[in-house]
Amino acid sequence: MAIPETNFNPPFNITRASHLVLTAQDLPASRDFYTEVLGLVVSDEDANTIFLRGIEERGHHSLTLKKTSAEPTCECVGMHVFSEEDLDKAKFYFDRADVPAKFIEVPFQTRTLRFSDVMGTTVDLCATMQTKPRLHVQAHIHRGGRALRMDHYQVLVPDVLTAAKFYMDLGFRISDYLVIPGADVVIGTFLYRKNNPWDIVFLHRSGPRFHHCGYVVESLYDIIRGLDTAGNIGFGECIEHGPGRHGTWAGSKAPRPKVEKSSDIPITCTCAIPTDIGPSCCCPRFRSSTVTTNLSRACWIQTQLATAGASRHPAAGLTKPTHLPG
Question: Is this model's pTM higher than 0.85 or not?
Fold first, then answer.
């Protein structure tokens, strides 16, 4: 088992995981869930698209929801680079490495470079996007769990170390990895660029398939408040697990949580301890407690490591997970 080494002189400067695009069959229900339960705020919207952000985020959006009549999917995950020059460096690097990459137009973002990584995951890079006021002191408009900002996401891939090496060649560092007990096989890697434990996580499954993204909240109280709100407005049966610490099933004989409907999409809120980062970035948080919920037939974000698995959608690079039995 050879763990890849970080390239400390990367060809361009990725600063953090920053945003993603999901599709939803029921856009109004998704809007209710993400604004009333999670507590995101709407930056812009029309009949087919909703742009949302956390209450401490300056960037226009960290989550984009698009209406679809097909099975929900993740169109892409997104990362910020330090400058516009880094986008040109990235395009040059990908062209030389025969990695598919092209500049695209995305609403409210400056130049955006879309590429497919070594596993086939669709990734968007941008340096800046339109800004909005931070709303963390506007307590009178806070809803549900009062989500602060996006922290990370996880992707299921068939070759964890190959995926990790691709990103470690781009300057990502490894904070942790998972191995099968008694075997020399790596089944998970945790990678980061900002100053907390992870920006992107890879877990061994067929793929590439989207597993989850995580938002941070200020305290355990916000998680409880989000749970109470979910129960009050009809999402109570969607709660899958929590509150509890991340990874509490490790070594346990207790059954892992399950979801009854294969179309359900999960999301996790995590408690926050503030850290520092650049003025135009989203301050990362260390996670201390989690809660996992599901929204059926709408849009999907997060689950925990113990609840992944299922088939890949043939029409998209990243797809939703269904949940394997414990």
Answer: no
